[in-house]
Amino acid sequence: MSVTAARGFTAAGIAAGIKQNGNPDVALVVNEGPKAAAAGVFTANRVKAAPVQWSQQVLKGGTVRSVVLNSGGANACTGPQGFESTYATAQKAAALLGHSVSEVAVCSTGLIGVQLPMDKLLPGVERAVAARSASGGEQAAVAIKTTDTVHKQSVYDGEGWTLGGMAKGAGMLAPGLATMLVVLTTDADLDSAALDRALRAATRTTFDRVDSDGCMSTNDTVLLLASGATEVTPPHEEFAEAVRTVCDDLARQLIGDAEGSSKDIRIEVVGAATEDDAVEVGRTIARNNLLKCALHGEDPNWGRVLSAIGTTNAAFEPEQLNVAINGVWVCKGGSVGEDRELVDMRGREIRITADLNTGGDSAVIWANDLTAEYVHENSEYAS
Amino acid sequence: MSVTAARGFTAAGIAAGIKQNGNPDVALVVNEGPKAAAAGVFTANRVKAAPVQWSQQVLKGGTVRSVVLNSGGANACTGPQGFESTYATAQKAAALLGHSVSEVAVCSTGLIGVQLPMDKLLPGVERAVAARSASGGEQAAVAIKTTDTVHKQSVYDGEGWTLGGMAKGAGMLAPGLATMLVVLTTDADLDSAALDRALRAATRTTFDRVDSDGCMSTNDTVLLLASGATEVTPPHEEFAEAVRTVCDDLARQLIGDAEGSSKDIRIEVVGAATEDDAVEVGRTIARNNLLKCALHGEDPNWGRVLSAIGTTNAAFEPEQLNVAINGVWVCKGGSVGEDRELVDMRGREIRITADLNTGGDSAVIWANDLTAEYVHENSEYAS
């Protein structure tokens, strides 16, 4: 399963004592080869955690032989000491595994602004290296959890090759404390340029369109590693579709486990003049706190959808907007449409369709409702 | 008090039965003259309620003799019928008061997407016209409340002239259902151009910098009426300062009574390259749900401030950011600063200072925390 589903990978997840509750907090993924091509995408936040800054440099080389991940601390906003911690982590793994330090990526997740306990992390890396195995994927997926209630894995079986992955967090635009980390592995034989192309295309319409709470993390990282162990090079379209499928599956798992959520909200914007317009409108709807509260209360309050759309710069005329909630067109022509009492909102998934009536482009954004549990969870995190 | 503090104004607030709980829901403000200059600012939302579209046209004439306001329904997204309702309301007041219909402004607040019960509103207008008096300001302030727990008024005494006002709602960027309506009145003798200049300058740094929940209403309206009853024409600077003072007072009252809030958050951005940068950064901090939850929990989680700043386009270097919470510089140089345990957050007001260390401009944004009560209130509004 997970990051060890593909041949040529080992992994481990162990408890190093970074988390005070004793839960697993250090994960390791090792590309045992024969090849070690890699690609990565990172948070667009200008305040980037030390491990993001480090791993961005590593990925420029196009080769990643191992990834060390820790939960229990984001190592963001930690200054030169934080960068030193990331470097020491990579150095430790490199020395133990016989890799070059510039081929070791590092990911961290947890509270911002706290230094990592290196006296616990470095021995943890040593134990993870020793514990790694071809069946260690699930343990690794467990060790990267923060506020996740379940670990997230996905596997795609290609024609003679496999793609697997693990994820934690609540979205690319995720809590600054429960950042999204994803590691994907494949035994297909592809170079870093091919991996990069497939990964960027996939994240653009999956992780980038998940918006749990509008907050963008300092640590978000998605890595794709290829061992070439099968010596199979799939056609680009086939591989790209596999990456998209696995990313979509993991993204949906993230939304389904977002902090305090009780509803998964699928927002489809159609009839947009451009895809950018569709994304802007979808994201703005996704971030409207009043709507998120209303949906939590199973209230088909379409007025809040319209007032959200009205704050965007997308091309539309207010009197031509149509909005459906769970298939009922409660707003037609910018005004009262079908009876709101017809909308059944009891299920976990809520579908909103906003028709801008301007063009032929569309986009889907996934979001969550806003709940008292979200408030509780995020008002008590650090204290 | 309120809109009848200045000479030349009468007002009333009555219960017309629009609100099902029988609370007052129709207010009237009449400029008895001798003059009737006016200015107004309106929501920037592209989805504008019928009364906003109507009143914008009225204000183009520069003359307003009366304002009819109703709570219990926003008359937004109500199509041609909604516009007809607004027009009929203005017509009714104009006929009863002997005004031209084009001199009657209309404001509505309440749920979006529901037609107003004209069989109740029009008789209500008739009763309000009959009930109006020079001491009716407070009743008017009460009648425009929606989820407000208290009515809001403010008065400024000039040299031989007075400025008074009333407000309801939670901010210019306010719930789409508890929209901000403000009526200011003065007995100074000023033309509409002078009123407009003072009002725009005042709202730019007061109502426009209040951000309770990031949601922009379809109905926000701020009107300033001058009767000229004192025949005093104050110097522009003096009058502008009075308008700014009253707007600031009312804006603070709105924040202090925002839905479900337990903390008022004063965000000051200093060291910005431009005022626009300062406002963008302040607003982005103000809208970060994770930070709003943390502050509710009295957790000085400055990492969430930095991760919010990192999503803006303002000029800054991450490693030069400083952040203080209630006077304690918990973040220095983008990293760990003074001990977070030193921050006392028990009071209602929380002060955040973000120093971008780039230039000499600054701005203050007022916001609220995010609470379980906000979720409860807004998940049960319509149902």
From TrEMBL, chains A, B:
- Matching PANTHER family: ARGININE BIOSYNTHESIS BIFUNCTIONAL PROTEIN ARGJ, ARGININE BIOSYNTHESIS BIFUNCTIONAL PROTEIN ARGJ, MITOCHONDRIAL
Purpose: Catalyzes two activities which are involved in the cyclic version of arginine biosynthesis: the synthesis of N-acetylglutamate from glutamate and acetyl-CoA as the acetyl donor, and of ornithine by transacetylation between N(2)-acetylornithine and glutamate.
What does the UniProt entry say about where the protein is found?
A: Cytoplasm
GO molecular function: any one?
Answer: L-glutamate N-acetyltransferase activity, acting on acetyl-L-ornithine as donor
Q: What is the lineage of its organism?
A: Bacteria, Bacillati, Actinomycetota, Actinomycetes, Kitasatosporales
Does the entry feature the keyword Transferase, yes or no?
A: yes
A GO CC term assigned to this protein in UniProt: cytoplasm
Q: Kindly state which reaction or reactions the protein catalyses.
A: N(2)-acetyl-L-ornithine + L-glutamate = N-acetyl-L-glutamate + L-ornithine; L-glutamate + acetyl-CoA = N-acetyl-L-glutamate + CoA + H(+)
Q: What is its EC number?
A: 2.3.1.35, 2.3.1.1
Q: Which HAMAP family match?
A: ArgJ
At what residues does the UniProt record annotate the site feature described as Involved in the stabilization of negative charge on the oxyanion by the formation of the oxyanion hole? 109-110
Q: What is this protein called?
A: Arginine biosynthesis bifunctional protein ArgJ
| List of catalytic residues | 179
Site (Cleavage) location in chain: 178-179
The transmembrane segments are none
Family per record = Belongs to the ArgJ family.
Subunit details for this protein?
Answer: Heterotetramer of two alpha and two beta chains.
Q: In which pathway does it act?
A: Amino-acid biosynthesis; L-arginine biosynthesis; N(2)-acetyl-L-ornithine from L-glutamate: step 1/4; Amino-acid biosynthesis; L-arginine biosynthesis; L-ornithine and N-acetyl-L-glutamate from L-glutamate and N(2)-acetyl-L-ornithine (cyclic): step 1/1
GO BP annotations, alphabetical order: L-arginine biosynthetic process; ornithine biosynthetic process
Which InterPro entries has this protein been placed in? Arg_biosynth_ArgJ, ArgJ-like_dom_sf, ArgJ_beta_C
Annotated gene: argJ
**Keyword set for this entry?**
Acyltransferase, Amino-acid biosynthesis, Arginine biosynthesis, Autocatalytic cleavage, Cytoplasm, Multifunctional enzyme, Transferase
Binding positions for substrate? 146, 168, 179, 259, 378, 383
The UniProt record lists the keyword Transferase: yes
